[in-house]
């Protein structure tokens, strides 16, 4: 189980580091100690105090305002693979549907959280080198403090990289806020900020530990992996102040940096893919740390369901679930049907990532496979059925938000090699095929299953009350449900998940929760494992076609994980993909819900507007992002 970096005590102590900052981001009722107290040598007088301040830098990530909801879930929609449900004035809807404006509150809360993290990092970066222990302590103390200094530098770089990704040119400070400072600084060109981000992350990697982490703290290899991502975004397309979307003329230099950092990581081989794609997310839901798969993640811990570090992962973004066996959820993250049909049917990621069902109060899956129910398909990776369902997680959860997984790094490697070599080389093919092999179950024994209806039975009155149980066979995750009845018997069975790892045909039992109906039978069959020809990409692809393959593979592998909209922007194809998806859903039915195509404006929505709460007080921000 995961070893939380945030205990109840640590949440309170880390949160008190906001008292270091003369900002309005902290609640007034916490400001009980004069700011001047923390400018003296009384603070950071020992390693424990430095550690609490460093936790405070991490803590800015662990909030609904940042990665517990806003940045992770809302800011990644709407795209070709996910969209928010419904129309309304809620921020999470207006932002997702490209209707957000500068007055939209959520923009300001996310902006403030990222800058809170920057300023907390600045405090740590300044104070630790001035500690007596930093110079005169034991080697163990010096190593400990250097690690914290590296963490603060990495996190400052990370927070700035997110600000640039979301807003472009932003205010930039590398000095902590002091009483009397001018906090109203103007916009700085994003590429100047990227220079400092790269410097911070490079310096951090020099002092961070190489060992596999036992908690959510960053290590050397994760810092390098994240630096590679930053470099790829710096070298990608972005919307400039002049309203044009372009990549920098020296973009290949950024790709070369990404290549170097990725090669450094791969040479040490600290990561590996979990053989089971499904197990990755089950582990996340069960709070099992998996640092060889999950490279960088945000810690969430919410004692008693009320205090600090709240997350809506697994509540906001799971299949619709009625309160009963599992806690209910609000199920807002929808998956357009064309994304589902883009998968190869043998790709095990399809049925695990996309829930084509809801869950009733008895814990049974109800298929959404008729009429227009395909408009209610949702993200499935963090379903309530995989969670602990502890009392403290009935609303908010403790599920960590994973910012980068190893498969992401492999796909980045393939993309970088393709770009720098003007086409895919052996390294690029190997990287993407590793991801595909796991996706098709090539790394585990056994296979998927199918189910065939035998006797239809008689006396059944409601398909929703008929339950298909699949037991044995050595595998997991297979699920099926009754789509409809015919003359009192079973009409059609639909596979919801074909599962993986079955080494023999499991037993299929059909029962009825209301006691009505009898005699229906079905049998399961093992499905043939995909061959290497199916799994591996075709050789000989051009640079352009290999890039398209990577773009599609990232959708299949990383769906719902917070990166799709950002990826589409850095490739310069967000508008194209929205239009393509709109055409595809309208071909299914003219009324298919997909509002973004009406609202999206190219040359505008690739960036968010500067929050009016900020521009009202900071007159040094003299312009708004294009078309807002």
UniProtKB/TrEMBL annotation:
<feature type="domain" description="RagB/SusD">
    <location>
        <begin position="533"/>
        <end position="628"/>
    </location>
</feature>
<dbReference type="Pfam" id="PF14322">
    <property type="entry name" value="SusD-like_3"/>
</dbReference>
<feature type="domain" description="RagB/SusD">
    <location>
        <begin position="343"/>
        <end position="450"/>
    </location>
</feature>
<dbReference type="Pfam" id="PF07980">
    <property type="entry name" value="SusD_RagB"/>
</dbReference>
<dbReference type="GO" id="GO:0009279">
    <property type="term" value="C:cell outer membrane"/>
</dbReference>
<dbReference type="InterPro" id="IPR012944">
    <property type="entry name" value="SusD_RagB_dom"/>
</dbReference>
<protein>
    <recommendedName>
        <fullName>SusD-like protein P2</fullName>
    </recommendedName>
</protein>
<dbReference type="InterPro" id="IPR033985">
    <property type="entry name" value="SusD-like_N"/>
</dbReference>
<feature type="signal peptide">
    <location>
        <begin position="1"/>
        <end position="27"/>
    </location>
</feature>
<keyword id="KW-0472">Membrane</keyword>
<keyword id="KW-0732">Signal</keyword>
<keyword id="KW-0998">Cell outer membrane</keyword>
<feature type="domain" description="SusD-like N-terminal">
    <location>
        <begin position="101"/>
        <end position="230"/>
    </location>
</feature>
<dbReference type="InterPro" id="IPR011990">
    <property type="entry name" value="TPR-like_helical_dom_sf"/>
</dbReference>
<comment type="similarity">
    <text>Belongs to the SusD family.</text>
</comment>
């Amino acid at each position: 189980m995961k070893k939380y970096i945030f205990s109840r005590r640590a949440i309170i102590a880390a949160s008190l580091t906001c008292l270091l900052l003369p900002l309005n981001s902290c609640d007034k009722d916490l400001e009980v100690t004069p700011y001047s107290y923390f400018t003296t040598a009384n603070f950071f007088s020992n390693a424990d105090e430095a550690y609490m301040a460093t936790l405070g830098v991490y803590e800015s990530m662990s909030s609904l305002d940042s990665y517990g909801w806003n940045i992770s879930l809302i800011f990644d929609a709407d795209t070709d693979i996910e969209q928010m449900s419904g129309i309304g004035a809620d921020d999470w809807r207006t932002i997702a549907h490209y209707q957000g404006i500068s007055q939209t509150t959520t923009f300001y809360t996310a902006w403030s959280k990222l800058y809170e993290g920057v300023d907390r990092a600045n405090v740590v970066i300044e104070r630790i080198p001035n500690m007596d222990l930093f110079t005169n302590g034991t080697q163990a103390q010096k190593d400990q403090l250097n690690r914290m200094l590296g963490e603060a530098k990495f996190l400052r770089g990370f927070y700035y990289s997110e600000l640039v990704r979301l807003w472009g040119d932003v205010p930039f400070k590398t000095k902590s806020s002091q009483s009397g400072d001018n906090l109203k600084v103007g916009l700085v060109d994003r590429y100047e900020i990227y220079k400092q981000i790269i410097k911070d992350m490079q310096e951090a990697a020099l002092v961070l530990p190489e060992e596999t982490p036992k908690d959510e703290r960053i290590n050397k290899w994760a810092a390098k992996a994240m630096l590679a991502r930053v470099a790829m975004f710096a070298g990608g397309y972005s919307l400039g102040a002049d309203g044009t979307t372009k990549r920098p003329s020296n973009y290949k230099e950024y790709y070369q940096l990404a290549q170097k950092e990725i090669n450094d990581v791969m040479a040490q081989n600290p990561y590996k893919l979990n053989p089971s794609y499904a197990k990755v997310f089950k582990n996340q839901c069960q709070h099992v740390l998996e640092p060889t798969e999950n490279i960088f993640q945000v810690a969430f811990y919410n004692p008693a369901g009320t205090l600090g570090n709240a997350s809506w992962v697994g509540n906001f973004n799971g299949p619709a679930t009625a309160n009963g066996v599992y806690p209910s959820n609000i199920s807002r993250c929808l998956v357009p049907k064309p994304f589902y049909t883009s998968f190869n049917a043998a790709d095990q990621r399809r049925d695990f990532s996309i829930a084509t069902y809801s869950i009733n109060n008895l814990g049974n899956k109800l298929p959404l496979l008729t009429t227009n129910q395909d408009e209610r398909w949702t993200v499935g990776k963090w379903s309530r059925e995989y969670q602990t369902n502890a009392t403290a997680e009935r609303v908010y959860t403790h599920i960590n938000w994973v910012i980068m997984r190893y498969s992401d790094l492999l796909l980045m490697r393939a993309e970088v090699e393709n770009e720098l070599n003007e086409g895919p080389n052996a390294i690029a093919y190997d990287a993407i095929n590793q991801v595909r092999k796991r996706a098709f179950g090539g790394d585990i024994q056994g296979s998927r299953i199918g189910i065939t209806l035998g006797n239809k039975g008689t006396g059944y009155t409601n398909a929703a009350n008929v339950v298909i149980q699949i037991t044995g066979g050595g595998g997991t995750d297979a699920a099926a449900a009754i789509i409809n009845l015919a003359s009192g018997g079973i009409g059609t069975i639909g596979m919801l998940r074909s599962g993986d790892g079955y080494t023999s045909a499991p037993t299929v039992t059909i029962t009825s929760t209301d006691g009505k109906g009898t005699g229906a039978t079905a049998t399961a069959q093992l499905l043939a494992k995909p061959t290497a020809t199916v799994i591996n990409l075709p050789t000989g692809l051009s640079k352009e076609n290999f890039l398209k393959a990577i773009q599609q593979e990232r959708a299949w592998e990383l769906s719902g994980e917070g990166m799709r909209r950002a990826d589409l922007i850095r490739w310069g194809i967000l508008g194209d993909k929205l239009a393509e998806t709109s055409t595809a859903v309208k071909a299914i039915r003219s009324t298919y819900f997909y509002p973004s195509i009406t609202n999206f404006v190219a040359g505008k929505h690739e960036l968010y507007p500067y929050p009016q709460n900020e521009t009202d007080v900071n007159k040094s921000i003299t312009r708004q992002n294009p078309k807002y």
